[in-house]
Amino acid sequence: MNRREWMKLAALFTGAGSLPLLQACGQRHAMQPDAPLRIGYLPITDATPLLVAHSRKLFEAEGVVVEKPVLFRSWAQLVEAFISGQVNMVHVLSPMTVWARYGSQSPLKVLMWNHMAGSALTVQPGINSVAELGGKTVAIPFWYSIHNVVLQYLLRSNGLEVTENDAPGPRQVRLIVMAPSDMVAALAAKNIAGFIVAEPFNAVAENKGVGKVLRFTGDVWRDHACCVTVAHAHDVERRPEWVQRVTNALVKAQLWTLDHRVEAATLLSNAGEGKYTPHLPAVLGKVLAPPQADWQRYVDSGAIRHPDWKQSRIDFQPYPFASYTETMVELLKQTHIAGENLFLRDLDPARVAGELVDERFVRKAIESTQSQARFALPASFARQETLLA
Known about the structure:
By secondary structure, the protein is α/β, with parallel strands linked by helices. It has helices at 3-12, 15-31, 48-55, 58-61, 75-83, 94-103, 146-157, 180-188, 201-208, 233-238, 240-259, 261-268, 281-288, 292-301, 322-334, 349-356, 360-368; strands spanning 39-41, 70-71, 89-93, 108-113, 116-117, 119-123, 137-140, 161-163, 172-177, 194-198, 212-216, 227-232, 314-315. It is found in: Endomembrane system.
């Protein structure tokens, strides 16, 4: 993401920047109160449930009219399309929803989690610890991202601080925002010491031999969400039955993916019928269905330090725990974020969890599919968050 893209996205999440887009969205709702499902996505594994549900015709099975999902190349393009109503359901970085809702008062609702884990800190082959990142540059996909939150948690735990200065000190790590598609090349050229991002870019760096996974984010924050499924508040309020049917399909897509990981990798790849992403089946397979030998190698290298968690490289569970949202808000307050971020200071984590997330639809979908045990969800639909560096 270049500076122009960053500024564009920042402008969208201000009252002045979002107002004309919100007005356009309102006009679309007035003209098409029963609009078909229009999905927007980025070509990353975070979009898996949306794309699987489309490919497997799970939306149609629920009586939902759906158009072909639209691929976007940047978060700025995706967010602009969503706010203006060109698409009405997207996956976005979970901290981004906090920025949108409380930074610009954009009326959106988090319906469910898209996935768990699915990200990693990848570094040059000669780097063997987080402490060795001192004095170096690391790329993140966005300031408001779980990647930034988890990375800075790791840095603080290793006595390092964050800077945006071009010449970081020995106990400083310079962070820059970069498009995921540019990260592997930047690592290969040694323009950066590492990057932290969603899959499959970590797997791409491994396959090309230009980087190695230093830590998996799911091995730092146990079973954390990364991207979440977001809908317009207008749809949630005025056509809840439609939202329920869409959510049912997405929960069934996650269940199918859990049982068909290899097939899902092909489905999402450039060899799949839908050609949803430009990635090779082998690369996506390394993420969705990695061999057991990979897991043991990561344990031996220290990329996985908590093998007792039995964390998959990417996993699927749709329920949005309130404790996760509350912890995310608390961590955002401790995280260096460029640009306008003063709104974070006064946010009450519990209030955010109650206002931003609407878990009614996904809970009903889980209960109707009797999938609570399959997703390993506690009977109380509550949990405690675990973060360990």
